[in-house]
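fwd from M.: "can u put these together and see what the complex looks like"

so here's what she sent:
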Amino acid sequence: MSAAFAAVYTRELRLALRRRVEALLPVVFFVVAVSLFPVGVGPEPQTLRVIAAGVVWVCALLASMLSVANLYALDHADGSLEQMLLSGHPPTLIASAKAAAHWTITGAPLVLAAPLIGLLLDMSPAALATLVAALLLGTPILSLLGGMGAALTLGLRSAGVLLILLILPLSIPALIFGSGAVGAVDSGISASGHFSLLGALLILTALIAPPATAMALRIALE
Amino acid sequence: MNSLRWSTFAAPSRFYALVNALNPWLWAVAIGLALAALYIGFFVAPVDATQGNSYRIIFIHVPAAWLSMVLYLAMAFWAAIGWMLNARMASMLARAIAPTGAMFTFVALWTGSFWGKPTWGTWWVWDARLTSELILLFLYLGYIALVSSIDDVVRGDKSGAVLAIVGAVNVPIIYFSVVWWNTLHQGATISATAAPKMAQTMLLAMLLMTLSFWAYAFAVVFTRAQALAVERERHAEWVRSAAGKELQ
């Protein structure tokens, strides 16, 4: 069982390594999108410090959603998705491996880029550390939910926009607790409550999203 | 139709006949109760001590908000039934509920905005209940967008069911996270545990309006489900005979 997980996971990573520029596009989008905010809102450090955590979170959310649209679409187009589902391995396992690979390729670079982006927005070191920890817990939630959206919209004409419309409302709790953690640290409170809730949310999403993704894939390929 | 079973009206032909029989009554109830509720709400109910006459929008606002939440659960329920039992009519019912639910959500937001202007001095605040109602509207819109962009009817029904169920599981999580995030809205006036803090006439008007909205929702959802059934089964014999009967 874990062999099937590892096979799907390493295959995704290998494919990403062969299309390096494409794999880096979400991070580039993330950096460009965040740097639009000082231009749009104004360069005053006080203002930027207040909105920094929210801006980073929203841009990470959008970067995940934009990149997840292709998670199943390419495999669906060349028929390999059907072969994976016919292989006899549980589809839930394949869905989890896909989500894990998406996080490794897109989510982890976003977490790594976040401190740099935070510096541009004049965040304090304590706030930066909290932001990274919150993103570390929160971005897997986005990959799991995004995988479900990608499976539901598989093969549809307006899949990209539709996926965002479907998944953004569901990812609002992650956004609230993720940026709330930074706000708590900024106002001198411990962020442990936010981290606990983010962790609980991650566990719940990890339990619900892969089976739902598997069902959506079966429905789409019927 | 000698013996009635729980699945009797799962057949689109029988559902069609049932709706034809029920709908005039539902409309009568909806209009009659709405007129009664509006009369009591505007002429009998006393002026509020602090909010003056502006509170009277509550007679539309609160029933619409209730219906918006209940209809989402009803939609998820029928979508799940349609998916698990392969019941065509249940899936059509779920699709038929979505636009009405979205409409009530919008009405609740709209009337809340009109109520907020005189009492809070602003059209909109990012308070927990307003925000979660707005997110509910997004969930409805997502469901409608998903089922209408899938050309294959069966896939649309099933994918919609997956989304509606995941959404229904998430609704409490979203609600409580938004409550945690911020709250400024006045506390709930009606709760199951405490005695209502409203005048009896106000409560009466609100309950009558709720029943009227229920009847309206049933009538509109049934008519829409009827239309979906006729559209999907246009080649079936019962549609021909029903159409023939109505032309005579």
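replying to her w this: Chain A touches chain B through 27 residues (CB under 8 Å).
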